[in-house]
Amino acid sequence: MSRALCIQLINPNTSCAMTEVMAQTARSVAARDTQIMAVCPQEGAPSIEGHFDEAIATLGVLQQVKAGRDAGVDGHIIACFGDPGLLAARELARGPVIGIAEAAMHLATMLATRFSIVTTLPRTLTIARHLLHQYGFERHCAALHAIDLPVLSLEDGSGLAQQKVREQCIAAKKTDGSGAIVLGCGGMADLAQELTLELNIPVIDGVSAAVKMVESLAALRLTTSKHGDLDYPLEKPLSGRFAGLNLRDHYV
Q: Are 22 and 38 in contact (CB under 8 A)?
């Protein structure tokens, strides 16, 4: 009998409440024998809403990837729509590393010829545009929309952010000509299934998408290539708070 698959779900911000929301969503779609190890850094930014926040979050992501690698997890998910530190994490990891933005965009192109993105603050729309270009999906994206509320409004208990996400998704379906909608924040993970039923089009949450991608790659026995730029980092004496990222004798 093969052992259970273990996927590390990394919330790059420090919100334990948001980590739990994403963990519940991940477990609801994971295979019965898949274990979800949900973690977030103890220090860093409470929410990620710009380039500065992403730069801070990257160190925490890499620390968690290293810890997950040492614990023997089979794959990692970076559960922030900016996919902070994704390529660096792929260098560090043995198993596959999936960012939720890349995962959601990929699935959207398999389900519709055009998709829209609904995210939080307007300033993050530029980050989403950069990712669309980087991943080659800019021609597939009809429009980007922001609810103009911060990430942490999704967990304040008022329901206002959730209602605004719903309104933006309805408006996107009516005006964009899109066949699918991508939710542009990990904190929206628990909204996708209900919105899919209400709008009668695919509303895609990157956390769920990433879980199924890691499971699929594991089933195919595929992992990140170590030939070329995603080979393990060059071994060198890291110092200070970075010393813990040294892989030392584990380049196998």
A: yes
Angle between helices 124-135 and 100-111 (to 10 degrees): 60
The alpha carbon torsion through 163, 110, 229, 126 (nearest 10 deg) reads -30
Kindly state the helix (H) or strand (E) to which residue 178 belongs, with its residue range. Answer: none
- The answer, as to whether pTM is greater than 0.90, is yes
Residue 166 near residue 199 (C-beta atoms within 8 A): no
The torsion defined by the Cα of 15, 121, 26 and 222, in degrees rounded to 10, comes to -110
Give residue 228's identity as a one-letter amino acid code: G
- In 64-186 the beta strands, taken as DSSP E runs, fall at 75-78, 97-99, 115-119, 141-146, 180-183
Locate 61 and state its tokens: 């992501």
For 169, list phi and psi in degrees, rounded to 5.
Answer: -65, -40
pLDDT of res. 156: 93
pLDDT, averaged per 10 consecutive residues of the chain (252 residues), comes to 87 97 98 98 96 97 96 97 98 97 98 98 97 97 98 95 98 96 97 98 98 97 96 90 75 48
Taking the C-alpha atoms of residue 218 and residue 134, their distance in angstroms, rounded to an integer, is 25
With H, G, I as helix, E, B as strand and everything else as coil, classify residue 243: helix
| Cβ pair 94, 231 in contact under 8 A | no
Question: Tokens at residue 236, please?
Answer: 């060198």
Q: Could you give phi then psi for residue 21, rounded to 5 degrees?
A: -60, -45
- Write out pLDDT tens, residues 138-148: 999 999 999 99
Comparing C-alpha atoms, which of 70, 85, 110, 115 is closest to residue 213?
Answer: 110
SS3 assignment, position 34: strand
Q: In this prediction, what percent of the chain has a pLDDT beyond 90? A: 91
